[in-house]
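quick one, 421 residues, struct below
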Amino acid sequence: MSKQRLIVMCVDALFTTDLADVCRMEGFREILEDAAVYENIECIYPTLTYPCHATIMTGCWPDRHGISHNEKLSPAENNREWYWGYGNLKEKTIFDYARERGLTTAALEWPVTAGGPIDYLLPEIWSYDPEDTQMREAILGGASEGAREIYEKNRHMLCWKENPRFDAFNVRCAVDMIHKYKPEVIFMHQSNLDHVRHVHGLHAPQVQEALRLHGHWIQEIADALKEEGLFEDTAFVILGDHGHLQVDYNICPNVLLKQEGLLETDEQGTVRSWDAYVQSAGISAQVFVKHEQDLGTVEDILKRLAEMGFVREIFTREQVKELYHLDGEFAFVAEAAANYAFGNAACGELIVGTDRSDYKFSVATHGHLPFRGEKPCFIVRAKDVPKGVYEGGRLVDEGPTMMKLLGLQEMAGEMEGRALY
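---
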C-alpha cells in the first residue's frame, strides 16, 4: 500500500443515527460519498470521553491503558482535575509509533495528550479559573514548542473552555498547522455536539445546528488540505466516541454514605474526609472503599438502591474487569436504571432533578454500559479501504485500523483490537 497521510476528526457524541442527517450536510457529504462507514461501533465501559479516546489511540481496553474515568479521584476538590496528561497512559499510542517511523504528528484538543510526544500539540486542558492568563498557562504548559506561535495567533478566539468557540479555535489552529507545517498525522477532538446534547437532549432541535457547524469545520479542514495539494493523499477519518442516554433524575448515594458515617462534609457540602465515596461517571458510578470492614455496608447500600429501582446492575472490581476490561482502585461499579444518572452530592435529597452545571448531571449524558442507547460511528475515506456500510466494529479496533492506514500495521502487535479492513 502506498504511503498516505492521516487526519482523524472526532465529533464527540456523533451517533450512527446522525448519518441520515449529516450525509446531506457540508463537509460530511463529500467524505461520506466515497467512504467506508462502520455503524454501531461497540464502545467501552464506561462510555466516557477520556477512556474512549485513550482506547482509540492505544488500541487497548481501559484495564490496559489505565484511563478509567474522565476525572481523577479527589472528593475534597469535587474531582476537578481530569486525566489531561499523556503520562497517565500505561500503553504506547499511535503517536509513539508514528514518531518511531519518522512521521510528523499534530493533536488539537485530543484528550490525554498534554505533554505527549507530538510535534504540534495543543492539548485539551483548561484552568480552574476562566481568567485568560490562567487558561493560557494551562494550555501552553502541556503544548509543544512548535504549536505555541499558532496558539498565540488564535487565542483571541477562546473564552475559557466554552463552546462552540473552543472548537472553532481548534479548527483555526489546525488549518494554520496544515498550511505552515503539513503534519503527516493529525488528530482533532471537537466537543460542541456533545455539549449541546448534554444541555438540550439527545435529539433536540439544537442538535441539527450543532451538526451543521461540525460539517462546516470538516469542510474547512478538507479545503486546507486541498489548497496544499494533500487531500487525495490523506486518509480522512470522522468518528464518534460514545452515545448518550436521556436522564430525568440523579441518584446521590453519597447522601447515604454520610448518614452511615462513612463520609463527612463541611457546612457547604464539600467532602472533608471519607472512608467510602461514590464518584459519578454519569450513568455509571465508581465506588471507592478504603477499609475492607466497610465493604459489606457499602454493598448493602448499593443493593438497597437496586431494590428501590434506581440501580440496574452492581459489579465488583473483579467482575467488571472480566466482563468489560475495566479496572481501577474502586471496589464496585454501579449502573443506573433507565432515566437515572449518578450525582456526587453528599448533602440534600437522595434523588434530585437534572442539573446543567455539570455534564454528568444533565438531561442527557453517558458513562453507561456499551450495549445501551445510541452507538457511535466510524467513517473512513481512504485509498484501499472498500467503500460500503459495515457492522461489527469495536472502539478498540479503531487504533489498529489507523495504524494500517499509515502502513504501520506491523508495529500494532501490542494493540488488542484488529484492523477493520
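The chain is about 30% helix and 20% strand.
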